[in-house]
Write a structure and sequence with these properties.
By secondary structure, this protein is an alpha/beta fold. It is about 35% helix and about 20% strand. The longest helix is centred in the last third of the chain and has 25 residues. The structure holds zinc ion.
């Protein structure tokens, strides 16, 4: 038995996992942001609620583990940022602890029981607040022990001109310290940033997509530029990894016409020809973080 956690900036969600398709949710708790002892106690309470003694626990976090130092980088939960989280929690709880990135967990979930079933190479792509990704090959997560494989959202990769006809787009600063990352233009915040640049209009990503779907020309221009900027780095990532399916998660994945456009643009730019959808909506709509963490924990990878 595994206890898995999806740990976000507002809530800690826990579950008992007996198999990837047999996951029983436990109570949801508030994430202690600044008090590590309180953070440990929340995990302990969830483990107690699970009953029995788990073989290990697995945490899906919105951060990464540095493969050299094993330090956790997690900007939205200060009390775990910079810590050797796996060993510190293991010591405090007396259990083996695995830490995984949430986009990696999404990719594992899609490869295991979602849209990636039957595919050897699955690139899970997150179009949420920002852009992320994870890579699963033959059911195993690449970089299960920490690292950045599949992170197509960062690096100075976006074009300086985009759209039909092309318009100049500035290289925006990114939270990772670089400029011109896909993350800075491809998620919800990126869409809002592009809309502001192109039209000097402030609007939420929800309002922009709604306006686009209602035929608004300015919103359509924003979407056109966004798709053009995002499709090329994604196509390159598909070429490099050999992925044969790209399940998409995150808030923007709920906008199916957006995914259709992205799919067409990516398929037009990759070397391999697919006569079917390549970029698809992820099928694990509920708790992919927990499902992926469960798959990781049950497989014993990186244990
Ligand atoms: Zn970046």
């Amino acid at each position: 038995m595994i206890v898995c956690f999806d740990i976000g900036g507002s809530a800690v969600k826990g579950a008992v996992a007996h198999a990837p398709d047999r996951i029983v949710p436990l109570g949801r708790r508030i994430t202690p942001l600044d008090d590590f002892d309180a953070f440990v106690e929340v995990l302990r309470a969830v483990i107690d609620e699970a009953g029995g003694a788990p073989e290990r626990i697995v945490l899906s976090i919105t951060g990464v583990v540095d493969p050299e130092t094993q330090a956790t980088k997690c900007a939205n939960i200060p009390c775990i940022d910079g810590r050797l989280l796996s060993s510190e929690l293991s010591q405090a709880l007396g259990l083996p602890v695995l830490i995984a990135n949430d986009a990696d967990c999404f990719a594992l979930a899609e490869a295991g029981i979602g849209a990636g079933r039957g595919h050897r190479i699955v690139l899970g792509a997150i179009l949420g607040t920002g852009v992320g990704g994870g890579l699963v090959v033959d059911g195993r997560l690449i970089n299960a022990a920490g690292g950045f494989a599949g992170e197509w959202g960062h690096g100075p990769a976006v074009a300086s001109h985009a759209g039909h006809p092309p318009v100049a787009i500035p290289f925006y600063d990114c939270g990772c310290g670089q400029r011109g990352c896909v993350d800075s233009v491809g998620g919800a915040r990126g869409m809002e940033r592009l809309h502001l640049t192109l039209h000097e209009l402030e609007a939420t990503s929800e309002a922009i997509t709604q306006a686009w779907l209602s035929g608004d020309a300015k919103a359509a221009r924003t979407i056109d530029v966004l798709i053009d900027l995002v499709a090329s780095p994604l196509a390159l990532t598909v070429n490099i990894t050999g992925a044969t399916i790209v399940p998409v998660g995150g808030g923007l994945s709920n906008v199916e016409p957006l995914l259709e456009l992205l799919d067409q643009a990516v398929r037009a730019r990759i070397l391999r020809r697919f006569d079917r959808r390549l970029v698809v909506r992820g099928e694990c709509r509920v708790e992919p973080g927990l499902i992926g963490a469960a798959i990781l924990g049950l497989s014993g990878d990186a244990a």
